[in-house]
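Researcher: Before we compare anything, I want clean individual predictions. No alignment, no superposition, just each chain on its own. First chain goes here; please echo the sequence and then give the structure tokens.
Model: Echoing the first chain and its structure:
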Amino acid sequence: MRRLVLFMHVSLDGFVTDPNGGMGFIKVDEEIFDYVGDRTNRSDMALYGRVTYEMMDAYWPSAPDKPNATKHEKEHGAWYNRVDKVVLSKSMKGQQKPNTIIISEDVEHRIKALKQQAGSEILIFGSPSAAHSLMQYGLIDEFWLFVNPVLVGGGGTPLFNNTQLPAELKLVTTKSFSNGVVCLGYQKS
């Protein structure tokens, strides 16, 4: 049975985007890439909303082949090309993509069915709208929140809104990075 794990960068005041929809406040570096890469390599499926999927799919399939590809680009690109992908999207309904399942309706039951299959875990990278949908049905088993030391001040996209069901969470890991970001890992109790 697979676990559904959310990886999300968030501001200290709980936003995943600024008021303009930007994510320029997010701090990433090699230390964070290495930490996330260790966890990513243990996972066998990725889940995205349409916008994040289109951004990822435009970059990662060829990223490892670039002559000046970084260690992160080589490793994450290889992982991206290897794993199955799930995309939550009404506008992509009926499209066929290699190693990709597009879910346009009956999200709750389709994701529950994927979680029942053999495998390690499904990682959700970003994709706030998809995360909100999954939280609404109580489908996320772990939250790995990368808290960035910045206050957005409102007007952006909140990580948690009124759509999620109440959930009791247990802190299972913390990691401080030299750039000021702190990862907080929570599991459903």
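Researcher: Okay. Second chain, same rules.
Model: Second chain and its structure:
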Amino acid sequence: MTFGDSQSYIINHIIRTPSYPLWLDFFEFLFGTEDYLLCVVYFQIIISFTSVLFLSLVLKKYFKLGKITFFLIYLILISPVYSPFTYIKQNLVNQIGTDSLTYSLFLLYIGIVTKTIFKLNFKGLIYILFISILIVTVRPQFIFLYIIDVILIFYYWFKSKNIHKTINLVLMFTVFLLSASLYQRTYNYFFHGVFSSIPPLIGTQLLVAQLYLSNPSLDIQLFHDKKQIDFLKWLYAAIKIREKEASLSQYINDIMPYVPIKKSEAVTLENIYWTHYMDAWRACYWKVAAVCYLCNPAEQSYIESDQLKTSIALKLMKANYFEFIKLYLGTIVSWMSYYWSGYYYHYANLLGIIYTSFLIIQAVILTFIFLRTRKTLFFIFPLITTIHFANYGLIALFEPILLRYSFYTDTLQLVFQVLFLRYIVISVFFKLFK
């Protein structure tokens, strides 16, 4: 029921956004200290089935699905929660963590988005904006939904040409954003005595990839602030020790000064972006970058430490800009196909290139058709692809794209590809037998 991250939610740790810890507190208030976590799990089971059914019914209505397609969609959507395939199953509902609640809210968001796109209405967009803000206060990863909100506001103007209501949507969105920031600040002040709106973990996550790419002897010369220099020296020394402990010393710099790779292996995108970056991230760099959170429990020290890490990370990113872009794009492409390629990751890079190219080409063509025809059907598919890439793009800024972060949009993308294939088959069928 609990796992590594559970305790930080249970104790309202400062690195967590407020909604899920407060949700746990609410259940503890209702059911007492002994059984409340079990009640949380029961609730997560109920809401997961409900949200999957809700989105499935919405898609059934607006895409006019038959029973077989409906059940196939339902099975795909429920697969991250209950699946016989180990590499897909996340055991979400059985864990105390944000994933289950976030997945359910995300499906609710997509369901309302679908309804609002097919049947444009102002109230639906208000719901969309509110739910996106709520999801971000549960799991900050979903900040990429703000991009989708802006696209939907523009879509509303494009379809309705109602300037007055569009301005109202922009104002409402701004109010929601400010309210969410105040909510986070108030929560942190009440529980931790710090009036801060950003969970102090961003700098740590941003720093990991930059440490992986960094050349210690060269990059240390970029810094002049004593605090930054001392901390960076400590990081480099800790990484060196950790590399030896984790048997990562077998990797050498054959590719470029900053990116290690096994000498015995051919230089391929897979080796760089899949095997070594993931192994190094898990075994070494993340553990070194995050260690300060274990050293000093004072809330203010978390914020100061994270600010220091952010300043170092941004300077290293600027110094190793091209290497980071290469790592960033390679990470996205390499992981793009993992959800449906399973453990056959030796083919992941090739499949990722093919799948990424297909999604981009599909989105461009359908967007062009939508602009020509203004048919809703041709808007929703590229929108879902945009959501998918926005999620991957955000994750890759901070770390390798683990399945526990990507399954939300992986699952959704698979569902809409099934719907797209069905649309193509039906269209061809009617043309042949018309």
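Researcher: What stands out in the second chain?
Model: The two ends are 56 Å apart (CA to CA). Additionally, Residues 6-198+336-432 form one domain.
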